[in-house]
Structures are given as structure tokens and as C-alpha cells.
Design goal:
This protein is mainly β. It contains two helices and 35 strands. Strands 2, 3, 4, 5 and 6 form a five-stranded antiparallel beta sheet that branches. Strands 29-35-32-33-31 form a five-stranded antiparallel beta sheet, covered by helices on one side. The longest helix has 24 residues. The protein is globular. Bound molecules: 2-acetamido-2-deoxy-beta-D-glucopyranose (NAG) (10 copies). The site of one 2-acetamido-2-deoxy-beta-D-glucopyranose has 3 residues, from loops.
């Protein structure tokens, strides 16, 4: 009897909770409304069935003093969109920050000093309401019509979710990395908008599609569709394809330059990797910063290091920031030498020109660079091509692996350590 009473009580409690959450959330947001990091009465705007919310999350990684990002997040707290600054990083505010839906029609993120750190730039476009829908799209609408003036699906940050269409005029960004879908249907990852380090799909070399669209189905299939393709071209299946219920799958360009599918169970607040575009993380251009060298530790995790003790980390607390010479080459005129690195390949920005590639042997590849003033490093492919390429100053991204046939030389001030 007591147990019966208890379960009845619990049922009533959960019904009450259900009613409360339905009535509290089915709202359109009107201009003049605000969300605050620290005011518990104004922390989130939620979608009608509470699948997604817009509010503040602590910056990841955490900072001291704490900072917060304005994000749309899945039930449990996994972000799928955030306001980003001009560097492509999530725009962050202090604990007195706020997100205002101004009467002008703009959404504006301000810090405690009331300085604007992000703005949707939709003032004067007739915006009269905002709505976060159950697919995770925040839409600013005008007039009584349901037409969208601006939406997060049309202005993606680093993530796309099911029912979001990613088109050829959009870009996902994370720091120096970006993802684009080209007109010919190639899905391509770039460093600094210029160096391509991964690409998949694409029609014939000269053929453009009509309006290629990348989408992730909720069951975990990532594909490109277009009126000119008889069937969608499949990019990847997540490894939990069609499994589980109440799971959100999403595609994210991570800050390490890899593109991944993740899944998150409702309410868990955690995400699990389900697919990665670049299986060898060290192949992500610039992952270890300028002059940094990427390799793997005994647990197969990518690690960033410097070529030799002739170099030192730019930031000892963050090995991904790259390395610099302890003595610059200009500071030891006539006394530079070449450090030999086996199984190492250097890729550069700007990429070497054809005039900087030579068919020469190992000694010439080393010596010709040593005597050439503009050359800072050279790579001999050793792959049967006989190609030696000169690297000039700029951005040098290094990769070492026992399976890499290349030998590289890097110019340092002696003695070689
Ligand atoms: C939150 O709402 C309660 C009840 O209306 C009110 O007493 C309290 O002052 C509010 N808190 C803030 C920080 O505005
Ligand atoms: C963007 O945000 C990142 C991280 O919060 C910060 O390091 C960077 O300086 C910001 N860039 C600009 C232009 O505000
Ligand atoms: C914040 O700045 C805006 C103008 O950018 C101004 O209209 C508003 O009154 C300011 N708010 C506060 C609290 O100072
Ligand atoms: C919320 O709504 C979306 C879209 O209609 C639906 O797919 C989802 O199953 C709903 N979730 C819950 C918990 O009702
Ligand atoms: C709403 O926006 C659309 C497209 O931008 C525009 O054609 C329409 O006139 C606007 N309506 C109002 C009431 O501002
Ligand atoms: C995405 O594209 C499909 C097919 O063209 C369309 O039915 C759907 O409405 C689009 N979704 C959004 C959010 O625009
Ligand atoms: C990134 O590209 C721009 C030109 O688009 C160039 O000026 C800049 O030096 C590049 N960044 C690095 C780190 O090489
Ligand atoms: C698609 O276009 C890009 C740039 O125009 C080109 O580099 C790439 O090779 C093309 N891909 C295919 C498969 O044709
Ligand atoms: C394909 O699209 C690209 C980018 O829009 C354009 O530069 C190129 O001329 C187009 N190629 C063809 C064959 O239409
Ligand atoms: C060149 O380097 C050697 C050590 O490798 C050093 O003994 C010598 O003094 C240097 N000469 C000049 C001109 O810096």
C-alpha cells in the first residue's frame, strides 16, 4: 500500500513536471528579452519540447576567471552552435555577460562592460520574433509571416545537425580550419582557407552540380545530394548507424582540424566519437603549429614536439602552438648546418612552387638548401619519385612516422643537437 502510494505520488510529480515544462517552454521570444549568465530567472530559451536550449555554457577548456559562451545545446548540455568571433573561436563573455534580443531586431552578445562581442546584424530587417525549434534551429522572423530573416542553420558555426542543410555558400569554421562543400560536390577541409588537407566526393573534374547539399540523417548517414545526382552520394556512416533511440548525431569540425560525427544520448551531456574524416590526425595540416612535428605516442595518441634541442616550444604549456629556433639562422651567418630527420615530411604554407622541386639525390637535397639563403628546410621523398623540395620561410608543418619514406633536413645554427 505504501509503495502504491509512493508510485502514484511519483506519477503525479512527473505529470506535474511534464505540464510545467510544456507550458514554460512553448514560447516565441519577443524583442526586448534578454538572457544573463548570472541571473537564474533568465538563463535559457528552450525549444517547444525542450530538446534544444539557447543559453550560456562555461568555456571549454575552462578559463580563470571563468568565461562563458552563448550556445544552442542539446538536452544535457552538448553545444551544437555558438556565437563566434572573427578568429573563428567561440565568442566568450564574463560572468556578467548577457544576450539581448534588441527591439531593433538584432541578437547581441555583450560582456559585463556592455561591449558587443557578437551581433547577428539583423537590425532594421523587420524582425519581430525569434523561435528555437525542436530541430535546434534558432530563427529570427519578420512580420506575421513565418519567413526567416536569419537563422543559425543558415549561419552555422562548427556543427551541423540532422535536418540542417549545408550548402556550397556556407562554411564551418574552427580556428584556422574550415570545411566547404564545393560546387562540384567535393567536401573539403582547409587550413587558413588555402591549404587543402582532406577531400572526398565530387563529380567529374569539370562538371558542377546544381545545388549540392550536405546533410546528416538522424540515423547517422552523412551524404551529399543534388538534383543531378541520381542517388545521394554517401560520405560516411557513423559506426552506431541506425542504433539506439533518443540519440542526437551531429557533424562537428573540431578545433584540432578533424571533422567528426558524434552521438549524444538525451540528457547525458556527453558525446561519443563515431567517425573521423582524417584517420591519421598528424595529416591535419598545421596540427602542431609552425615548425612543430607530429608523431604518435605508445598509446597511438598524436603528440606534438620540436625537431631537436635546437628548437624550443613557443608555449611550453601548449605543444600545439609550435616551435622556434633557439638561435635564428640570420644570427649565425656562414655557420648554419642541416639537421637530418629520418621518416619526416615537411609541408609548407605557401606551398613550394614547381621551381623549388628538383630531381636530385640525398646529398644535393641537403647541401643545395644549406647554401640557398631563402631555404629553411628540404624534404627528399625517397618514394621512388626522386623529388627534393625546398621549403622557404613561412609556415612549416612536420610529420614523422616509421612508414613515411621521406628524409627531411632543417637549417639550424650549429652545433646540431
Ligand atoms: C528572480 O525571481 C525572483 C522571484 O520573482 C526574485 O525574487 C529575484 O529577485 C529574481 N532574481 C534576480 C537576480 O532578478
Ligand atoms: C576570439 O576568441 C578567442 C578565444 O576566446 C580569443 O583567443 C581571440 O583573441 C578572439 N579573437 C578576437 C578577434 O576577438
Ligand atoms: C549598453 O550599450 C547600449 C548601446 O550599445 C546601450 O543602448 C545600453 O543602454 C547599454 N546598457 C547598459 C546597461 O549600459
Ligand atoms: C521533439 O520534437 C522533435 C521534432 O518534432 C521530435 O523529433 C522529437 O522526437 C521530440 N522529442 C521529444 C522528447 O518529444
Ligand atoms: C520580411 O522579409 C522578407 C525577406 O527579407 C521581405 O520580403 C518582407 O518584406 C519582410 N516583411 C516585413 C513585414 O518586413
Ligand atoms: C533541407 O532540404 C530538404 C530537401 O531539399 C528540405 O525539404 C528541407 O526543408 C530543408 N531543411 C531546411 C531546414 O531548410
Ligand atoms: C594565412 O593566409 C593569409 C593570406 O590569405 C596570409 O597572409 C597568412 O600569412 C597566412 N597565415 C599563415 C600563418 O601563414
Ligand atoms: C572540385 O573542384 C576543386 C576546385 O575547383 C578541385 O580542386 C577538385 O579537384 C574538384 N574535384 C573533383 C572530384 O573534380
Ligand atoms: C564550377 O563552379 C566554379 C565555382 O563557382 C566556377 O568557377 C567554375 O567555372 C564552374 N565550372 C563549370 C564547368 O561550370
Ligand atoms: C660556428 O659554430 C661553431 C660550433 O659549431 C663555433 O665553435 C664557432 O665559433 C662558430 N663560428 C661562428 C663564426 O659563429
Amino acid at each position: 500500500m505504501i509503495m502504491g502510494f509512493e508510485s502514484q505520488f511519483l506519477l503525479q510529480l512527473s505529470l506535474l513536471f511534464l505540464i510545467c515544462s510544456i507550458s514554460a517552454s512553448a514560447v516565441t521570444i519577443t524583442p526586448g528579452s534578454s538572457l544573463y549568465v548570472s541571473n537564474p530567472n533568465h538563463t535559457t530559451w528552450s525549444s517547444p519540447n525542450n530538446t534544444f536550449s539557447l543559453g550560456f555554457l562555461p568555456a571549454d577548456p575552462p578559463t580563470s576567471p571563468p568565461s562563458f559562451i552563448a550556445a544552442i545545446f542539446f538536452a544535457g548540455g552538448v553545444p551544437i552552435w555558438s556565437a563566434v568571433n572573427s578568429s573563428g573561436a567561440p565568442a566568450s563573455v564574463d560572468s556578467r555577460g548577457a544576450l539581448h534580443f534588441l527591439s531593433s531586431g538584432s541578437l547581441r552578445l555583450v560582456n559585463g562592460a556592455n561591449a558587443t562581442v557578437w551581433d547577428s546584424n539583423t537590425a532594421g530587417l523587420g524582425v519581430t520574433s525569434a523561435l528555437l525549434d525542436d530541430s535546434g534551429n534558432l530563427v529570427l522572423r519578420n512580420g506575421s509571416s513565418a519567413s526567416s530573416v536569419w537563422s543559425t542553420f543558415d549561419n552555422p558555426a562548427d556543427t551541423i545537425v540532422p535536418s540542417q542543410n549545408f550548402t556550397a555558400d556556407q562554411v564551418l569554421r574552427s580556428g584556422s580550419y574550415s570545411l566547404r562543400l564545393l560546387r562540384n560536390g567535393s567536401l573539403t577541409l582547409y587550413w587558413n582557407n588555402s591549404i587543402e588537407y582532406w577531400s572526398q566526393g565530387g563529380s567529374s573534374p569539370d562538371g558542377n552540380l546544381t545545388s549540392p547539399t550536405l546533410a546528416l540523417q538522424s540515423i547517422g548517414i552523412l551524404s551529399i545530394s543534388d538534383p543531378r545526382l541520381p542517388t545521394p552520394s554517401i560520405v560516411a556512416y557513423s559506426n552506431d548507424y541506425a542504433e539506439g533511440t533518443d540519440i542526437l548525431r551531429f557533424l562537428k569540425l573540431d578545433s584540432d582540424g578533424n571533422l567528426r560525427i558524434y552521438s549524444s544520448a538525451r540528457g547525458s551531456g556527453t558525446k561519443t566519437k563515431r567517425w573521423a574524416a582524417v584517420s591519421d590526425q598528424c595529416q591535419v595540416f598545421g596540427y602542431c603549429g609552425n615548425n612543430g612535428i607530429c608523431s604518435y605516442d605508445e598509446h597511438s595518441n598524436p603528440v606534438c614536439g620540436c625537431a631537436s634541442p635546437n628548437f624550443e616550444p613557443v608555449d611550453p604549456r601548449d605543444s600545439r602552438k609550435g616551435c622556434r629556433r633557439k638561435v635564428e639562422i640570420e644570427d649565425c651567418p656562414g655557420n648554419a648546418t642541416m639537421l637530418e630527420l629520418e621518416h619526416t615530411e615537411f609541408l609548407t604554407y605557401a606551398p613550394e612552387a614547381d621551381s623549388q622541386a628538383f630531381f636530385v639525390g640525398i646529398s644535393a637535397c641537403r647541401l643545395n638548401c644549406l647554401v640557398a639563403g631563402s631555404c629553411v628546410a628540404s624534404t627528399l621523398l625517397n618514394d621512388g619519385s626522386g623529388l627534393c623540395s625546398f621549403k622557404t620561410a613561412g609556415f612549416v608543418s612536420g610529420y614523422v612516422s616509421p612508414a613515411t619514406p621521406s628524409t627531411s633536413y632543417v637549417k639550424v645554427c650549429g652545433p646540431v643537437n
